[in-house]
Amino acid sequence: MTTDVFELQNFEKSGRYQIRDLAELSGIKAHTLRVWEQRYKLIKPKRTPTNIRYYDSNDLKLMLNVALLCKNKYRISKISRMSSDEIHKNVIDLIPVKGASVHLMNELIVAMMEMDEQKFENTLEATFTLAGFEDAMIKIVVPFLKKVGVLWVTNSIRPSHEHYVMHIIRQKIMAATNAIKPDVKQERKTLLLFLPDSEMNDIGLLLTNYMARVRHHHVTYLGMNVPLEDVSEVNDKINPDMLLSIFTTYPTTPEKVSEYIKQLSDTFPSKKILLTGYRVLADEFVMPDNVELLRDYNDLKKHID
Q1: Engineered SS bond to 216: which of 54, 141, 186, 211, CB 3.0-4.6 Å?
Q2: What pLDDT sits at residue 241?
Q3: Could you tell me which residues come within 8 angstroms of residue 184 by beta carbon, excluding any fewer than 6 positions away?
Q4: For the purposes of burial, counting CB atoms within 10 Å of the CB of 189, is it exposed (0-12), middle (13-18) or buried (19 or more)?
């Protein structure tokens, strides 16, 4: 039994997946995968020396492609008669039509699971070439990160997977931001960006920073885990037009979120305060007059375009 548990704990490290992993990663229910396995022989599980069933990276890639074809009205009975090359060709044929974002997201997932940095980098560059940096981030990378978050919560991936891709994406955003050529003459608004106490997930704030700077706004970026008194001190010095914060994991309860929103409103009564993130969007909060929720990046654009 000890050996079996040890093997299960190390599956992802060796590119081995259980059927629940394939289900979470592909979006196809485990029951459906079992039916397809038995009826159509689409995938065939391997077995460890201790007789534990598992699937490998090729099975994962195959099921991601099958899921994409199914979403585009291919019947599973037809897909099951295709060779791996034919499945791949049909996926490639879909890309120019409407499958590009899903296909690229799937490629990012596979590269993440294999911890293949070069493949992950190449796929990111492909998304930037396809859609431009900002649209690629909003339409492909951000949805990918949301899926990664779900996979982490459901224990389908390890924290190391999430940290691995977040580090690479963070570097890409920072590089794109550093490449912006300032144009002082066109600076229009001053934004103060920060994350509240204990909040460490800065990807969204970094992307907001990029989006504001590329439009030639002046941005003061305080980053992660900033006490409210520090925000107040900086506010007094720079007198920003807007303050923006993102609540992803903190504050931890609806009551604390509501309390923090009131603190922000009372501390900066004359400022426009923009808030977003899972914690603030998950419940229906009564917002003070100077606080506005951003439900997506289009809402952000209304304030900075």
Answers
A1: 186
A2: 95
A3: none
A4: middle
Residues 14 and 159 both lie in one domain:
yes
Question: Which 3-state string (H, E, C) describes 213-260?
Answer: HHCCCEEEEEECCCCHHHHHHHHHHHCCCEEEEECCCCCCCHHHHHHH
**Are 154 and 22 contained in the same domain?**
yes
Q: Is 23 helix (H, G, I), strand (E, B) or coil?
A: helix
Asked if the peptide bond before residue 254 counts as cis, ω within 30 degrees of 0, the response is no
Q: What is the pTM of this model?
A: 0.76
Residue 238: count other Cβ atoms within 10 Å of its Cβ.
Answer: 12
13-43 as b/e: b if 16+ CB within 10 A: eebbbbbebbbbbbebeeeebeebbeeeebb
Instruction: Please tell me the chain's helix, strand, coil percentages from 3-state DSSP, rounded to the nearest 5.
Output: 60, 10, 30
Summarize pLDDT for 57-88 with one digit per residue, the tens.
788 888 888 888 888 888 999 999 998 888 87
Using only C-alpha atoms, the chain has a radius of gyration, in whole angstroms, of 23
CA 135 – CA 16 distance, rounded (Å): 33
Domain boundary among 158, 176, 194: 176
